[in-house]
């Protein structure tokens, strides 16, 4: 009981310091800290498959916080399942037989992330993280289409997140004239991307959680 009280006292102290320091997003940070016990529960599996796939365990953890809040039985309205919210088709491709099984789910997502990181080998790590997360949420094809728009403009590098982020918002019917110049069709190769705002917010949130997990480090999460 004493150890449990000490643990929560440490969390409360950290929260107060950061709140008064004005350096946290209260809603997101409190959500993350509230999930500490679940993070500790699954950290062994996260570290196991992060090492296997040469990934940062802290980023996988941040992704799970955003995707399911560490609810291994989570199912979305569109059919995504488990801790990392794998879609059935994606889970099948990854060899995940039961997406609601925590270990299978984490293992599958880690394999998928490994593939996505290899899709952007020339991007610097900070940009690579964001390009991978955008691909995880919105689809690699959509990110490739956005890179094609950036490449067409020839003003900045398609290896950078910021111009790709802007280009993702241009994969809509309102920008059909640009699409016509790039692809000879009003519609991008992977279709219009009406959900670009959701993906941009997703990347922002996961990277926020990732930054906080790195900041708190081994004090709370032992990652």
**Euclidean distance between termini CA atoms:** 24 Å
Most strands sheet: none
Strand tally is: 0
Number of domains: 3
Form type: globular
What value does the average pLDDT take?
A: 92
Beta content comes to under 5%
Counting helices, strands and paired strands, the structural category is mainly alpha
SSE run: HHHHHHHHHHH
Oligomeric state of this protein = single chain
Percentage of residues in helical conformation: 55-70%
Spatial extent as radius of gyration: 19 Å
The low-pLDDT segments are none
Count every helix, treating DSSP H or I runs of 4 or more residues as helices.
11
Q: Could you explain the architecture of this structure?
A:
The chain folds into three domains: 1-34; 38-110, Lysozyme (Orthogonal Bundle), CATH 1.10.530; 119-217, no CATH class. It is globular. The longest helix has 25 residues, at 196-220. Helices cover 67% and strands 0% of the residues. α6 (102-118) packs across α7 (125-138), α7 crosses α8 and α8 (140-153) packs across α9. The model has no long low-confidence stretch (mean pLDDT 92). By secondary structure, the protein is mostly helical.
Overview features:
Lysozyme, 11 helices, 223 residues, 3 domains, mainly alpha
Q: Brief overview, please?
A:
With 223 residues, the chain is mainly alpha-helical. It is built from eleven helices and no strands.
